Amino acid sequence: MASTSEFRNGLCIKFNHDIYQVVEFLHVKPGKGAAFVRTKLKSMTNGRVLENTFPAGAKIDTVRVETRELQYLYQDDLGFNFMDSESFEQFSVEEHKINAPRFLKEGAVCLALVNSEDENILGLELPHMVEMEVTYTEPGLKGDTASGSALKPAVVDNGPSVQVPLFVNQGDRIRIDTRTGDYVERVK
């Protein structure tokens, strides 16, 4: 048992017969009335996000969560398949439990949030930055910026499309932020 004063981003709690992760929270002390905590919670079972308000000092059930490194192997009908780097045990993870599945590459090491009570995988997080190769992009022409934005679409080796600057060419390796899906820099 914990109270709302112990809320922090990433905390997992039991709420409405489900496990939720705190995405955002804000302690509010209005001039009139009792204080409360406004939260944004993400369901760890189906990925839905809901907003809820807790009275200040309310008791909540926390869930003990461990992090483990899992290596991505392949995708099939059941989902995305990963292997524990220490025990070599294999797990199948649904797509909604992964923060950016379109940037998964074979052999990528990800952090898994595992419920320590029943050993279920609650969520999986890719590294914040990944390197990928540009497999197709149109050549960028100098001065071809009628709209003022100097970006063009590029397809990377897994298939997703990313907006890149005009100087990026086919065959270049680029770094992508998996949290936003944006181009960060060209890798030398």
Radius of gyration: 21 Å
Spans where pLDDT lies below 50 across 5 or more residues:
none
Helix content: under 10%
- Can you list the strand order of the major beta sheet? 1-6-2-3-4-5
Largest sheet geometry? 6 strands, antiparallel
Structural class by sheet pairing and helices: mainly beta
The succession of helices and strands, N to C, reads EEEEEEEEEEEEEEEE
The CATH architecture category of the largest domain equals Roll
Helix tally equals: 0
| Mean pLDDT level | 87
CATH topology of the largest domain: SH3 type barrels
**DSSP summary, beta strand count:** 16
Q: Could you characterize what this model shows?
A:
- With 188 residues, the protein is an all-beta fold.
- The chain has strands at residues 2-3, 12-15, 18-28, 36-43, 49-55, 59-62, 65-76, 79-84, 90-93, 109-115, 121-125, 129-137, 151-156, 161-165, 173-177, 182-187.
- The protein has a six-stranded antiparallel β-sheet, with no helix packed on it.
- The model has no long low-confidence stretch (mean pLDDT 87).
